[in-house]
Amino acid sequence: MKTALVYLLMTSMSAIAAPVAIVIHGGAGNEQRPPAAEEKQRHATLERALRAGHELLLRGGSAIDAVEAAIVVLEDSPLFNAGKGAVFTSEGKNELDASIMEGRTRGAGAVGNVTTVKNPIRAARAVMERSPHVLLVGRGAEEFARRNGIEIVAPDYFRTEERWRELQEWKAKQTPGKPQSANPAAQEHLGTVGCVALDQNGTLAAGTSTGGMTGKQPGRLGDSPLIGAGTYADNRACGISCTGHGEFFIRNVVAFDIAARMRYQNQPLADAARVVVQEVLRPAGGRGGIIGIDREANIVVEFNTAAMARGSIDRHGKLSTATLGR
Amino acid sequence: MKTALVYLLMTSMSAIAAPVAIVIHGGAGNEQRPPAAEEKQRHATLERALRAGHELLLRGGSAIDAVEAAIVVLEDSPLFNAGKGAVFTSEGKNELDASIMEGRTRGAGAVGNVTTVKNPIRAARAVMERSPHVLLVGRGAEEFARRNGIEIVAPDYFRTEERWRELQEWKAKQTPGKPQSANPAAQEHLGTVGCVALDQNGTLAAGTSTGGMTGKQPGRLGDSPLIGAGTYADNRACGISCTGHGEFFIRNVVAFDIAARMRYQNQPLADAARVVVQEVLRPAGGRGGIIGIDREANIVVEFNTAAMARGSIDRHGKLSTATLGR
């Protein structure tokens, strides 16, 4: 009886002492109310991704496992701009980027410009765990993924008619003779995906995966595969995943900057995120948003676009998803 | 007479109010005393690079022009691991990376994995000034450089017998059947190059260029092409260029972290640099060093390796070069 009571006490205490939490995003952009059927699908997919990660966390799984599991669901869905359903480059290809980071060891891995890796987030994790490197790009990254048993697909696996049509619309707007450039401000739906999770050991992890911008120049890397810019995790501060106009996120080293403000200025996560997204990025024209979790399991979602697809399951198990504005 | 006096006063005041300064590095690594003739050449090349940048600064040129001019000298020299004389990948190729950033606008540009661009720092600058992007890699970066009139060379332009011999030595040390990996700790001479400059307008700029590590996996990017990791410039804090074991510099977002400690903790440049290089990187096993200048023209060189090739011309015009330890 006494043993049972002690056990009960211990498990309740452990539930209090070691909360888990997960937050995901499916990109920031203009407010855009899709047909009701698609809207329903987007909510359902966000929920499925959250549950995939959260169930692992509840079973004592690691934050990095949860981040990978949630992002794989979003990569496999054609509704988001990552994995299947990625946007096209100006040359009509899908070039995918992803990164992942673990906040205890601050180990990190990333791939850029891959065209045949079904789930770039898995390749990013393999770079972290099975190579001495952090970032591999192009053919070298694909060779590495193949050698490490990551699923390889034909480049046309990623193609969806919706994204192809978006490329044709983008092309129709280009001025002949002028160098083409992607204009993310004009893009309705950016759709990068990301996840941050906190596990029972108090370890944070973050990951991001994207197809970039419709009409991007071949070989362009945005912030998603760059540690510090699009993704960062540090158990002393927070885990962060970003989405938006990548060049601004690179120049402002957004994910790391939020962690730095927490560590060096003792700002709470919510304040650091608000300052960086609303007071640094917004005035500079850098449109997008971030998700984050701190070591106390506080969740933040902050964006300066009209809409951001996101969802979370907090320390109390409360699930929420949203696809439009606040 | 009065006019002449006022003019004299103004020019002296302007000399006091607007100092210029430049600092360069040629990589950090093990202490290694090369043959006297080569040692003399290394000092001479460092001095030539410094003077190329400093003369532009004295004539009122921009910090970004000075950084580019100094780095081109170092890229063109076979003595350093950037441009001509770059190290070889495990497949026996030269894959080059570079980045540049300007501290007033915080504009930035970078290229990764280029094999035909004679001066990668020029291509990085073109990305900054003539594209909406920050980072282009591989064939896309090369196409962009060619379209923008950057000099293209055959891949064997970069080859030197010394570097080729280093690759053969590296290969001889690999265990057959085991996946190959570059071990930067074992590399005698890393030789990445970089420059930071402060111009008469008080603008800082920083740039870095490298061939990476002997035996690196194809497609590997280190910190050199990554804004925030290997290169950062912010007029509110400092300009920084890094050299060393890139993966550690990426995970610790070294260049931006030094600027963040200055801005958020009011640390002087020298203190922030020392803490990051000696107290963050060194205990983690991250070998290398950094150069930097703050807006008051203070110059810092900090490294945790036995040696670092470096040189500077300070606000008083004092030139110094060194290739070994302290």
Description of the molecule:
2 copies of one chain form a homodimer. Chain A is of the alpha+beta class. Chain A has one domain: (Glycosyl)asparaginase (Glutamine Phosphoribosylpyrophosphate, subunit 1, domain 1). In chain A, 37% of the residues lie in helices and 23% in strands. Chain A contains 9 helices and 13 strands. The first copy, chain A, has helices at 2-17, 36-58, 63-76, 120-130, 138-147, 161-172, 246-251, 254-265, 269-284, and strands at residues 21-29, 96-102, 108-114, 135-137, 193-198, 204-210, 220-221, 231-234, 238-244, 288-294, 299-303, 307-313, 319-322. In chain A, strands 4-3-2-6-5-1-12-13 form an 8-stranded mixed β-sheet. The radius of gyration of chain A is 19 Å and the shape is globular. The model of chain A has no long low-confidence stretch (mean pLDDT 91). The interface between A and B is large, with 48 and 48 residues. Strand 4 of chain A pairs antiparallel with strand 7 (220-221) of chain B, so a sheet runs across the interface.
Topology:
2 copies of one chain form a homodimer.
Chain A lengths: L1 H16 L3 E9 L6 H23 L4 H14 L19 E7 L5 E7 L5 H11 L4 E3 H10 L13 H12 L20 E6 L5 E7 L9 E2 L9 E4 L3 E7 L1 H6 L2 H12 L3 H16 L3 E7 L4 E5 L3 E7 L5 E4 L4
Parallel strand pairs in A: 3-4
Antiparallel strand pairs in A: 1-5, 1-12, 2-3, 2-6, 5-6, 8-9, 9-10, 10-11, 12-13
Helix pairs in contact in A: 2-3, 3-4, 8-9
